[in-house]
């Protein structure tokens, strides 16, 4: 074993991360260890664009280190990339064990595997649909009880006086539910906070996010989102459904639960990252399908937002999972509503049907729809900027669980207070229709037979509010009511997203957009009173909702199809698409999408679809990590244990070379082996001496590696005696003999394309004689991005 080359590592691993940021505390509040460098030759400097120059030889002296202090806040720098995130192994390790198993498998065996994949996708759809059904029924029941209690209280005190008691009751009920949800997230499973879509995007991009697809995460997510929605926060339950579907997929496809320590001995072949990730993309699609009743939209969401790698059979299986998910939700909701067999409620959010006859649009309205898209993009960018600064504030100051719970309760109380005040001071009274379509009509100070219009927007679950804005007849809402509602709900939704509660941003975005879209429709109708085409403001509410949601999350293809499927009318496909495209173009000019912002704030090494535009002048030699730790084909056990135990260089992939020379010259590559494989080999004590002395020793199989997946034991838990350290280990049978390699002069875009398209974790850089000179990992590529001053490089931190 040796270090192959003396070249400086630009991508520097854990022990090198502190050099560029001396004395800067990390995101978790801990201070950096002092870093000492001993490099041969001259001091080396590196600069890209206008980033500050990083001196790689700089040392932190003991005096400087002792003067650093631990602040009350946690500083945050978005130019950092976290080293705590590892990549998934999407590429199959084609070692001798794998090839022998594939050769032994008959044609019938492969057919059975294919059938198993379809069965798993069907199970994913059924379970995701059942979870959606459970969330929907529980939210409806609890919200119904809450609003009925508050309504009776308001009716009682409107006549007798003392409405402040109703306000206190409303605020206390909201705080109680939200406190429960926030405690579950902040204290038990923080990864279950938010919508979960950024984390699933990262997982499907190839980043291993810790704890993101655990059973505990699913339980906290489901009960957390119920508490958030019932607690009256400006949130939706649709976003978390995507995360829930992904967790279900990850669990079902493995045929066991590591959390419950139960192994059902099924689907063992799928216990690897390649298969698991495909199923997780199916689960995310099933989640979208259950949430919006949009199976095609779910497939396109998985394609657009998630999976980096795609094939035709995967598309068909994902569509199958999505369709089963929608059907399951439909079936059980029809039984719940005492209409068994009537499958007309496609998803959790039901926008109602838009009839083409009553809501036709003309060619000359298209420029208006585009203008609304631009407005949605601008408002979405404003929303994202405000939420970005708010999230940075939370990272710095609101990092203790007790503070996070208190903030969530504060937001719940303020939401109740603002809602109550808006309803109290609104004099927008509307007559109750003959069908009495309002769920909880509040009379307050209106005349008999009338209800308070502002209460329809605030005193309701967000889904019902969206439907009323889409379908209530013209004249139902006063322009002032809509304007005030848009303004207040915009800031409430912005404040709410990022709290330590399980909550989605889809429905609040649709609600804000529907409100100002309907307002635009009313204003247009008042300008052109003679023309009846402008009469129905519902279509403008729909376009406004699409524009606002597109402006915040910046999805185009999947969102168009989701909204078309949710409205049940393809007529509005073109206006929705134009509004979403315009919203994305305008929004991207100012700020990134909300999910991308939160991914960046978590310092995740996320790889976008293409390398930065101006990076052709960079080569593999400049971006690779070196020196590289290599092993011989037959290596000493003590050497392997020492390398794996070295906490300063937490490498996960090791090139295997023909023979390591003593003079640190590069050696010829003959394979690649992973940390997880070496740990399994050490655990089973696969040593050359033992194999020779015990003829009956069982030969290691792929099943042993699959049984240890995905939570491989740490090296510290494996005991190796002093005598065993002197033994030798033959890696020939277990290494991947054909790893992907690139010459050292390959351009960065070419390396990036190969790495991302094949889903690699390690890419070996070789010279013209196939000798190892470096290793490219995800973090080496993710560091480069286009900033305001051209190509910039991020720094790495052990956060």
UniProtKB/TrEMBL annotation:
Its membrane topology: Multi-pass membrane protein
Positions of the UniProt region annotated as Disordered: 1-34
Transmembrane spans: 118-139, 167-188, 218-236, 279-302, 314-336, 366-390, 402-425, 480-499, 505-528, 540-564, 570-590
Chief localization: membrane
Keyword Repeat among record annotations: yes
Keyword Transmembrane helix: yes
Family, per entry: Belongs to the chloride channel (TC 2.A.49) family.
Pfam families assigned to the protein according to its UniProt record, in alphabetical order: CBS, Voltage_CLC
Compartments where located: Membrane
Coiled coil: none
CDD domains reported for this sequence: CBS_pair_voltage-gated_CLC_euk_bac, ClC_6_like
GO function terms (MF aspect): chloride channel activity; chloride:proton antiporter activity
Name of protein: Chloride channel protein
GO cellular component: lysosomal membrane
Organism: Kryptolebias marmoratus
Keyword terms: CBS domain, Chloride, Ion transport, Membrane, Repeat, Transmembrane, Transmembrane helix, Transport
Superkingdom assignment: Eukaryota
Domain CBS: 735-793
């Amino acid at each position: 074993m040796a270090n192959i080359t003396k070249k400086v590592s630009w991508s520097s691993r854990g022990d090198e991360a502190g050099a560029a940021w001396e004395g800067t505390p990390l995101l978790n509040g801990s201070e950096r260890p002092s870093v000492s460098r001993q490099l041969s030759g001259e001091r080396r400097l590196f600069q890209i664009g206008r980033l500050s120059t990083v001196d790689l030889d700089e040392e932190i002296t003991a005096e400087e280190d002792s003067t650093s202090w631990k602040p009350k806040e946690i500083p945050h720098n978005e130019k950092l990339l976290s080293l705590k995130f590892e990549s998934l192994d999407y590429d199959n390790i084609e070692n001798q064990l794998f090839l022998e198993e594939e050769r032994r498998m008959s044609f019938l065996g492969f057919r059975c595997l294919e059938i198993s994949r379809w069965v798993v996708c069907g199970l994913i759809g059924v379970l995701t649909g059942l979870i959606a059904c459970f969330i929907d029924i529980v939210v409806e029941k609890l919200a119904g009880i809450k609003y009925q209690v508050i309504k009776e209280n308001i009716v009682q005190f409107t006549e007798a006086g003392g409405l402040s008691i109703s306000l206190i009751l409303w605020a206390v009920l909201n705080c109680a539910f939200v406190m429960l949800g926030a405690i579950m997230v902040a204290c038990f499973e923080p990864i279950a906070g938010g919508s979960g879509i950024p984390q699933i995007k990262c997982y499907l991009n190839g980043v291993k996010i810790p704890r993101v697809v655990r059973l505990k995460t699913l339980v906290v997510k489901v009960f957390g989102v119920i508490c958030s929605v019932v607690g009256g926060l400006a949130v939706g339950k649709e976003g978390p459904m995507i995360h829930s579907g992904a967790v279900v997929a990850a669990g079902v496809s493995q045929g066991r639960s590591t959390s419950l320590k139960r192994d059902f001995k099924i689907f063992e072949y799928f216990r690897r990252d390649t298969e698991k990730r495909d199923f997780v993309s199916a689960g995310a699609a099933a989640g979208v399908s259950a949430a919006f009743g949009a199976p095609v939209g779910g497939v396109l969401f998985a394609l657009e937002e998630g999976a980096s790698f795609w094939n035709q059979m995967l598309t068909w299986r994902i569509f199958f999972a999505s369709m089963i998910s929608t059907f399951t939700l439909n079936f059980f909701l029809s039984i719940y509503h005492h209409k068994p067999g009537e499958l007309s409620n496609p998803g959790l959010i039901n926008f109602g049907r838009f009839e083409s006859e009553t809501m036709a649009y003309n060619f000359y309205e298209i420029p208006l729809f585009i203008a609304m898209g631009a407005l949605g993009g601008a408002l979405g960018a404003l929303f994202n900027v405000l939420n970005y600064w708010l999230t940075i504030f939370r990272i710095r100051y609101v990092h203790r669980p007790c503070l996070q719970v208190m903030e969530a309760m504060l937001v719940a109380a303020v939401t109740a207070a603002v809602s109550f005040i808006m309803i109290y001071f609104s004099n927008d009274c509307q007559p109750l229709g003959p069908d009495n379509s309002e769920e909880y009509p509040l009379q307050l100070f209106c005349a008999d037979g009338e209800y308070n219009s502002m209460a329809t927007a605030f005193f309701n679950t967000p889904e019902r509010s969206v439907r009323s804005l889409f379908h209530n007849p013209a004249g139902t809402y006063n322009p002032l009511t809509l304007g005030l509602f848009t303004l207040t709900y915009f800031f409430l939704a912005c404040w709410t997203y990022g709290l330590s509660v399980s909550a989605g941003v889809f429905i609040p975005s649709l609600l804000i957009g529907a409100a100002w879209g309907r307002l635009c429709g009313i204003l247009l109708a008042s300008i052109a009173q003679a023309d009846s085409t402008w009469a129905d403001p519902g279509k403008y509410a729909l376009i406004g909702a699409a524009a606002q949601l597109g402006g915040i999350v910046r999805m185009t293809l999947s969102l168009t199809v989701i909204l078309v499927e949710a409205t049940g009318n393809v007529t509005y496909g073109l206006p929705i698409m134009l509004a979403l495209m315009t919203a994305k173009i305008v929004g991207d000019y100012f700020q990134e999408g909300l999910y991308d912002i939160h991914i960046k704030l978590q310092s995740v090494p996320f790889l976008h679809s293409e390398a930065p535009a101006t990076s052709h002048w960079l080569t593999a030699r400049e971006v690779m990590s070196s020196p590289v730790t290599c092993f011989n084909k037959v290596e000493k056990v003590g050497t392997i244990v020492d390398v794996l135990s070295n906490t300063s260089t937490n490498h996960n992939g090791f090139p295997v070379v023909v023979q390591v020379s003593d003079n640190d010259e590069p050696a010829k590559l003959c394979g690649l082996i992973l940390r997880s494989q070496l740990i399994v080999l050490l655990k089973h004590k696969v040593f050359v001496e033992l194999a020779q002395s015990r003829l009956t020793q069982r030969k290691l199989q792929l099943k042993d590696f699959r049984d240890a997946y995905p939570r491989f034991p740490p090296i510290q838990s494996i005991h190796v005696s002093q005598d065993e350290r002197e033994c030798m280990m033959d890696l020939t049978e277990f290494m991947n003999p054909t790893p992907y390699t690139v010459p050292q002069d390959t351009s960065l875009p070419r390396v990036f394309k190969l790495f991302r398209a094949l889903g690699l974790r390690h890419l070996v850089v070789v010279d013209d004689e196939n000798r190892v000179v470096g290793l490219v990992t995800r973090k080496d590529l993710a560091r480069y991005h286009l900033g305001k001053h051209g190509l910039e490089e991020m720094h790495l931190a052990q956060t």
